Automatic annotation (TrEMBL):
Gene3D superfamilies: P-loop containing nucleotide triphosphate hydrolases
Transmembrane segments: none
Species annotation: Polymorphospora rubra
Protein name: Sulfonate ABC transporter ATP-binding lipoprotein
Matching PANTHER family: ALIPHATIC SULFONATES IMPORT ATP-BINDING PROTEIN SSUB (PTHR42788:SF13), TAURINE IMPORT ATP-BINDING PROTEIN-RELATED (PTHR42788)
Residue ranges, annotated region (Disordered): 259-278
Boundaries of every ABC transporter domain copy: 10-244
Record keywords, A-Z: ATP-binding, Lipoprotein, Nucleotide-binding, Transport
Compositional bias of kind Low complexity: 263-278
Superkingdom to which the source organism belongs: Bacteria
Single GO molecular function: ATP binding
Pfam families with a match to the protein in the record: ABC_tran
Length: 278
């Protein structure tokens, strides 16, 4: 699926996250999380509501700090990686600025970086081409469908050519057909750019279809209970009908229920092999 190169994109070691520590509303969102994501790989996080998936993503993005443990991105501390724009983010709400055209939304991270106008324009055009929206560069977000807005958000996340893409239920609000089309587009984009991806979803089929590995988490306090390897080869329409795809879905479903996921790796045995590295 993706072109893999050596190395680790993301590493979390002994990570715990406690919100409101010492207060009556203290919440342990994550405990004992060890996770490494191989460069160029696609990893999904799945688990019951409130198990800490978004928190894990936010730790990688340096939007919250771990209570214990370390988070490194591209071999550097998460904070340094954020300042160096080592990753792009796309959330469920596309989060576009209504008063900016599509192209100027995509240019925004480049503007923040101080990139010159000419290069910004060229890069935005390139990214919009990639997501199939070149003809909509001068439109405003309100003139686009939800799926198109989500593609703009992906183009914006990729505009600085980040080696890592963090996505939190980006397709959650879309109809099934649009969702499947965007899944295929995302895989194509990741393959052509060599981007590593961490993808939060509630959909088992989506996690299996997209991922090299599916990280299964338990209810609060969130921990990784299982890492399920997926090996479906190049994805396409036939994949969605294949026995292997359904077998993958069954494995993840079992892991989520706490039973043994045949072919899955219990988390305790997993750290030796970085997630997504082959
Ligand atoms: N800033 C915060 N302050 C206090 N508690 C928080 C904060 N952010 C998250 N939490 C708590 O941490 C736990 C994990 O939340 P998180 O959003 O990471 O879960 P999730 O798995 O992404 O949930 P969902 O699938 O419903 O989106 C929840 O109990 C949540 O209430």
């Amino acid at each position: 699926m993706t072109e893999r190169s050596e190395g680790t994109a993301v590493a979390l070691t002994g990570v715990t996250k406690v919100f409101n520590a010492g207060r009556p509303d203290e919440v342990t969102a994550l405990t004992g999380v060890d996770l490494t994501v191989g460069r160029g790989s696609f990893v999904s996080l799945i688990g019951p509501s409130g198990c800490g998936k978004s928190t894990l993503l936010r730790l990688v993005a340096d939007l919250v700090a771990p209570t214990t443990g370390t988070v490194t991105v591209a071999g550097k501390p998460a904070r340094a990686a954020r300042l160096d724009q080592e990753y792009g983010i796309a959330f469920q709400q596309a989060g576009l600025f209504e008063w900016r055209t599509v192209a100027r939304n995509v240019e925004l991270p480049l503007e923040l970086r101080g990139t010159g106008r000419r290069e910004r324009r060229a890069r935005a055009r390139e990214m919009l081409d990639l997501v199939g929206l070149a003809d909509f560069a001068d439109h405003y977000p309100a003139q686009l469908s939800g799926g198109m807005q989500q593609r703009v958000a992906i183009a914006r996340a990729l505009a600085v050519h980040p080696p890592l893409l963090l996505m939190d239920e980006p397709f959650g609000a879309l109809d099934e057909m649009t969702r499947e089309r965007l899944q295929d587009e995302l895989l194509r984009i990741c393959a052509s750019t060599g981007t590593s991806t961490i993808f939060v979803t509630h959909s088992i089929p989506e996690a299996v279809y997209l991922s090299d590995r599916v990280v299964v988490m338990s209810a609060r306090p969130g921990r990784i209970t299982e890492v399920v390897d997926v090996d479906l080869g190049p994805r396409g329409e036939a994949t969605r009908q294949s026995e292997e795809f359904f077998a993958g879905i069954t494995r993840v479903r079992r892991a989520l229920r706490g039973g043994p996921a045949k072919g899955g790796v219990p988390a305790a045995a997993a750290p030796a092999s970085p997630v997504g590295e082959r």
